[in-house]
Design a protein that fits this description.
Elements lengths: L7 E3 L2 E4 L4 E3 L7 E3 L14 E5 L3 H8 L4 E4 L5 E3 L2 E7 L7 E7 L2 E5 L21 E6 L11 H17 L3 E5 L5 H8 L7 E3 L1 H13 L7 E2 L13 E4 L7 H4 L4 E6 L6 H7 L3 E3 L7 H11 L3 E7 L1 H10 L3 E4 L16
């Protein structure tokens, strides 16, 4: 008799029958296990939440008054007939993969992840399993990232060039994860760093947790370029071209995203500079992570799912597409907040 799957898809989302819980559900449930605090994975309306300990403050900041339990990375917890544990995903601070074991069968839900350590998020840890549920936001060979140090050098050279040209550098980045990663990459000797309210509020939560992030100048309705010569402003994508950023006079705009790898997306964003930088694994990272799990079965979600599943089948995996409502990093998203 075939063994029942450890996880299935219910109308509410990814469900574990043995434990009676959902993972990153997209409709309200009694018990939700959350991989990270981006809006496509952490939604309001659940009765109780369980997340990795460092995820909780931002999760509460984003969702308000919710009932949250926490668990340290690598700690086992028995829920019904399932044993679960959370393991670093490297995606954003506090992000996790969730390991679920039922009757000796181990499945791992990746959430979103990247394999390059960024010096800020808890570094990705491969988790051995029988079945790996992986994102594939950038699951095509065209998506291969440069080392973070290379991106940082380009970013800071652009900022320096803006200063020399009498321009304010304005760079768009998601308010959780990407913005803080950029902040940690900047050469602060060049000038002050301004932060849009959405970025500043999230960064403040992470600072209070002990993440080592430089101080920034909060952007207010009264802030002008004259007050902060040579400044760089970090803002959510939706803020590019807003009245608040126009007040800075001559500006040069940048956009940080893995989608900047594609020329059409760069043109559509109308930014002066595109920096290819993502908090998701690239093609090589995805393949490396899957190999490290030792999994024979791989289910792929949110991204180039069909093409990536076919590729994995060609490599000898039992691979298939798992349809979910996760979006990863959509090319036209205004923010994953």
């Amino acid at each position: 008799m075939a063994r029942a799957p450890v996880l299935t898809i219910s109308p509410q989302g990814l469900y574990c029958p043995a434990g009676g819980f959902h993972i990153d559900p997209w409709r309200p449930v009694n018990r939700a296990l959350i991989t990270h605090a981006h809006a496509d994975h952490a939604r309001a309306g659940h009765r109780t939440y369980l997340c990795a300990t460092p995820c909780a403050p931002v999760l509460q900041h984003r969702l308000g008054r919710i009932a949250v339990d926490t668990i340290d990375y690598g700690t086992d917890l028995q829920i019904g007939d399932a044993r679960v544990s959370f393991h670093p995903a490297g995606h954003v601070p506090g992000s996790a993969q969730i390991r679920v074991e039922v009757a000796g069968e181990v499945w791992v839900v990746s959430g979103d992840y990247k394999t390059e350590a960024d010096g800020l998020s808890e570094a990705f840890e491969p988790v051995r399993c029988h079945c790996f549920i992986t994102e594939c936001t950038f699951g095509l060979p065209v998506f291969r990232w440069q080392p973070q140090a290379t991106v940082a050098a380009d970013l800071n050279q652009w900022w320096q060039d803006c200063i020399a040209a009498g321009q304010t550098a304005v760079i768009a980045a998601y308010s959780l994860g990407k913005a803080q990663r950029l902040l940690s990459m900047l050469y602060l000797s060049l000038g002050p760093v301004l932060a849009h309210g959405a970025v500043e509020d999230t960064t403040a939560v992470l600072r209070r947790q002990g993440y080592q992030l430089p101080q920034t100048v909060p952007l207010t309705p009264d802030t002008t370029a004259a007050d902060h010569p040579g400044a760089l402003l970090i803002a959510p994508p939706a803020a590019l071209g807003s009245d608040r950023t126009r007040r800075f006079g001559p500006v040069s705009t940048g956009f940080a995203s893995g989608w900047m790898q594609l020329r059409g997306i760069r043109r559509r964003r109308s930014a002066d500079r595109g920096f290819v930088m993502s908090d998701h694994a690239d093609w090589d990272g995805l393949n490396h992570a899957i190999r490290e799990t030792g999994a024979e079965r791989v289910l792929v979600t949110h991204g180039y799912t069909g093409a990536f599943a076919r590729w994995l089948c060609e490599q000898g995996y039992d691979a298939a597409v798992l349809d979910t409502e996760f979006t990863g990093e959509p090319p036209d998203a205004e923010d994953s907040a």
